[in-house]
Automatic annotation (TrEMBL):
Gene3D superfamilies found in the cross-reference section: Enolpyruvate transferase domain
Encoding gene (name): murA
SUPFAM superfamilies, alphabetized: EPT/RTPC-like
Binding site for phosphoenolpyruvate: K22, N23
Pathway participation: Cell wall biogenesis; peptidoglycan biosynthesis
Subcellular location(s) per record: Cytoplasm
Organism expressing this protein natively: Roseospirillum parvum
This protein's UniProt keywords: Cell cycle, Cell division, Cell shape, Cell wall biogenesis/degradation, Cytoplasm, Peptidoglycan synthesis, Pyruvate, Transferase
Gene Ontology BP annotations: cell division; cell wall organization; peptidoglycan biosynthetic process; regulation of cell shape; UDP-N-acetylgalactosamine biosynthetic process
Official protein name in the record: UDP-N-acetylglucosamine 1-carboxyvinyltransferase
Length: 428
């Protein structure tokens, strides 16, 4: 297994291009199952998760062209599900990536049935899919759990209805939206997730012919249509990748310009960074992040559904706060077990105490490099960030987590002066 070796202490300076959002792409790709026409997605990131989704869609009969830049433009892929040849999403693929459960709504809507493995828990929490299932039941699906699989049928098709989520769920909203788009009649999705990735899916579905109102609010109104068509859609930029590199600039006290990162996607993260002493200047889709000469102060952070501070940035912000002057209280409200990076950051000298859902971080002037073990995607990148700021050498093991969500990470950081390299093999 590959490892990443970093020798820290160099302030990053330069430009970093931001790719398409993994979490938007993972919802947009299954939308291809809703139509017999081709769906072309541009600005598609080339990531392990995207390849896993492509493999899953191929299993359902959807032809997926390899991600390649058409005529020298942005990387793109065309997904064409002329016919659904299988409605089973097998355990082996679903266990690799929880977003696989997003084929459930589209398969049910298009083919009237789906058999999708239950995803199970993961490093950051139990992550049930009960709310996805309740939403689809409200739309008329009959659902049973059988031998670890969700067996869903809608022999007479789905019917529009009121879907009220008791808790905000990104994936649940996406599944409900895709199912409602082809259901008979009107649906109202209340307490819907408002994440930019959900909005991106809603915009794409609308361009495909779906009738959706309230995009960007917590109430989505969907008037079902009988068929959707093919289009070309550009995946929204990855606000988590952008936020991660903004923290990279801040933690190394550097000066980095993010390219293709509209700052309206970063509002909550930007607010915390600015409050901590980072200078952020937006010019079109360029965002300059300056912390050279800055004193970074501790800022309290609580994760919340969008537009609140994203849970997918909590680990990165914790690494930054570990180098701040003063203390910060970080509270995680979305996932029950998303502090797996704490013991590893502690190995690098960070002073962090966890009390239930909150972590008190007492900043210190300098972290020290150490061998560390990554446990999930954002925990892994928080260790890379800490390594960039630390004195001496850090080796991050289990790099495969990073490859799920960061395209050319070492290349992008090295271009700004970071001493970072991938060591192939035996990281354990
Ligand atoms: C591929 C993708 O887009 N992943 C993102 C998506 O994950 P995902 O869509 O899995 O996250 P959800 O918004 O659904 O989860 C939010 C909370 O609701 C709970 N829940 C969810 C569904 C359900 O049926 N029952 C239930 O109890 C979850 O366990 C969690 O505690 O949103 C999360 C929250 O912003 C992000 O961290 C993930 O990066
Ligand atoms: C938790 C994440 O992804 P997933 O929902 O695919 O596990 C993430 O992107 O940080």
């Amino acid at each position: 297994m590959d490892r990443i070796r970093i020798v820290g202490g160099t302030p990053l300076k330069g430009q970093i291009p931001i790719g398409g959002a993994k979490n938007a792409a993972l919802a947009l790709m299954p939308a291809a199952l809703l139509t017999d026409q081709p769906l072309t997605l541009t600005n598609l990131p080339d990531l392990v998760d995207i390849r896993t989704m492509a493999t899953l869609l191929a299993q359902h009969g959807c032809a997926v062209s390899p991600v390649a830049p058409p005529n020298g433009h942005e990387p793109a892929s065309t997904l064409h599900a002329k016919r659904i040849t299988s409605t089973t999403a097998p355990y082996d693929l679903v266990r690799r990536m929880r977003a696989s459960v997003l084929v459930l709504g589209p398969l049910l809507a298009r083919a009237g049935e789906a058999r999708v493995s239950l995803p199970g828990g993961c490093a950051i929490g139990t992550r049930p899919v009960d709310l996805h299932l309740e939403a689809l039941k409200a739309l008329g699906a009959e659902i049973e759990l059988e031998e670890g699989y969700i067996k869903a049928t809608a022999p007479k098709g789905l019917t529009g209805n009121r879907v009220v989520f008791p808790k905000v769920t990104v994936g649940g909203t996406e599944n409900a939206l895709m199912a409602a788009a082809l259901a008979k009649g009107d649906s109202l999705i209340a307490n819907a997730a408002q994440e930019p990735e959900v909005c991106d899916l809603a915009h794409c579905l609308t361009a495909m012919g779906a009738r959706i109102e309230g995009i960007g609010t917590s109430t989505l109104q969907v008037s079902g249509v009988s068929a959707l068509g093919g289009i070309t859609h550009r995946v929204v930029p990855d606000r988590i990748e952008a936020g991660t590199y903004a923290v990279a600039a801040a933690i190394t006290r550097g000066d980095v310009t993010l390219l293709g990162a509209p700052n309206e996607l970063l509002t909550a993260v930007e607010k915390v960074l600015v409050e901590s002493g980072v200078e952020m200047t937006a010019e079109g889709d360029r965002l300059r992040v300056r912390a050279d000469g800055a004193e970074i102060r501790g800022v309290d952070v609580m994760t919340e559904p969008y537009p609140g501070f994203p849970t997918d940035m909590q680990a990165q912000m914790m690494a930054l706060m570990a180098t701040a002057s003063g203390s910060a209280l970080l509270t995680e409200t979305i996932f029950e077990n998303r502090f797996m990076h704490v013991p590893e950051l502690t190995r690098m000298g960070a002073r962090i105490n966890v009390h239930g859902a909150s972590a008190i971080v007492r900043g210190m002037p300098m972290l020290s490099g150490a061998p560390v073990m990554a446990t999930d995607l954002r925990a892994s990148v928080s260790l890379v960030l800490a390594g960039l700021a630390a004195r001496g050498e850090t080796v991050v093991n289990r790099v495969y987590h990073l490859d799920r969500g960061y395209e050319r990470l070492e290349e992008k950081l090295a271009a700004c002066g970071a001493h970072i390299e991938r060591l192939p093999g035996n990281g354990g």
